[in-house]
Amino acid sequence: MAKLNLNRVEMPRQDPKLRGKNFKEVALGYSPEQAKEEVSRCIQCVKRNCVEGCPVGVDIPDFIKALRDANMPEAVRVLKSKNALPGICGRVCPQETQCEATCSLAKKGAPIAIGRLERFVADWERKNKGSLDQPELAKPSGKRVAVVGSGPAGLTAAAALAKLGHDVTIFEALHVAGGVLMYGIPEFRLPKEIVQGEVDFVASLGVKIELDSVVGKLVTIDELLKNGYHAVFLGTGAGLPMFLNIPGENLTGIYSANEFLTRVNLMKAYLFPEYDTPVKVGRRVAVIGGGNVAMDSARCALRLGADEVYIVYRRSEAEMPARREEVENAGEEGIQFKFLTNPKKFLGDEQKRVVGMECYEMELGEPDESGRRRPVVKPGSEFTIDVDEAIVALGTTPNPLIASTTPGLETSKKGTVVADEATGETKKGKVWAGGDIVTGAATVISAMGAGKLAAANIDKFLRG
């Protein structure tokens, strides 16, 4: 038996000193030689644990085998038969906790770099578009489906339903399609031309995309069902920011991460003055939170000219929900971490601008319902950090617009839509839902898995 190769091929990245001053992509992707070396490590195991670890069930060993055989069109075909958005997943999926975590080599600490290889195949496809066949579509079913929202859940559901022969229209509230992929994730992590390419692929399957279409305002779900749609899929995500609810939070200079990232990414504030989107960035910026959105906000603030950027997180580094890679990238770029720290109140000047943040030191107590140790205030530990801008990145909940205009749609206490985990079916007839609108803020790939699952069940329903 051949000796196992436990040396993962590292992906080249921009130098931290350079990348902290530009919005170009940080990870540079594998060269063909690096991809060839990495695929040679795959042992093509019989058990295929990696497939079970993938929320959309990509046939990972098969696309890797095609890559090893230098059969790029086949690698693309295998990958896109289960995943309509590989260029996105290869960049922002937490593979380290999913397919790579279940890879047989993970036991030795060296799983195959599945995400990096997925990105390599997707990028090859983008450069060689003309030479590839379009996927086959089933013959038209005569059924119409409305998909509300064009984020990862909506795009995936729409692509799957179109391939099954249904007439699909996506309704998107914003002026571009892509949802959180466009407004939430910065250019240096997910270039917008990649997202646009994946949106164009979904449109090429015959999916119609209606932009500037706010469902719940311009048209209700009931009206869609009356107007000839046989089923509706809700994939509107979770776009409503959560706040700290502490004194001083209304001072000027305090953003929600949603507003900050939407201005920077969707409205292109980072290209000012070419794009006339104002975004004020302070000299000393505090970002409150420990997830990927907090890392994105901090790294954007740095690139927009802040002198010092702090991530303020109430637990320790071990409990941070952000991807390890993003935490490392942020640290290399000079972001400073203040762990076991929680804001008590914001301090303002006479103009009601934020000038500081009074914080508590925290210590970790017993685990809470999330399984992480609960942060507890250390009595008498208050101290002040001087800041002239703060970005609150504590997570999001669904916008209540759809729920408030759709009688019969059941929601939870947190405002998420109640849907059957196994089918995506809601309590309202002919309406399915998936992604962050059901789970609250989660990952791109879990939203895609939910969109795929719902599409299969909508197809079953439409075929009676």
Description:
The chain is an alpha/beta fold and 464 residues long. Helix content is 33%, strand content 16%. The protein has helices at residues 16-19, 32-39, 49-52, 60-68, 72-82, 86-92, 99-102, 114-127, 152-163, 180-183, 192-204, 221-226, 257-266, 292-303, 324-332, 401-404, 436-439, 444-462; strands at 144-148, 167-171, 208-210, 231-234, 240-241, 254-256, 284-288, 308-312, 336-338, 341-348, 354-367, 373-377, 383-386, 389-392, 396-397, 431-433. It has a five-stranded parallel β-sheet with strand order 3-2-1-4-16. Helix 14 links the parallel strand 7 and strand 8 (308-312). Helix 4 packs antiparallel against helix 5 (72-82), helix 6 runs antiparallel to helix 8 (114-127) and helix 13 packs across helix 14.
Kindly list the characteristics that best describe this protein.
five-stranded parallel sheet; 464 residues
Structure at a glance:
This protein is α/β, with parallel strands linked by helices and 464 residues long.
* Approximate strand percentage: 15-25%
Main sheet properties: 5 strands, parallel
Tally of individual helices:
18
- Shape designation: globular
- Structural classification: alpha/beta
Q: Give, in spatial order, the strands making up the sheet with the most strands.
A: 3-2-1-4-16
| Strand segment tally | 16
User: What's the rounded overall pLDDT mean?
Assistant: 94
**Which radius of gyration do the C-alpha atoms yield?**
23 Å
Task: Flag low-confidence runs.
Answer: none
Which bin fits the share of residues in helices? 25-40%
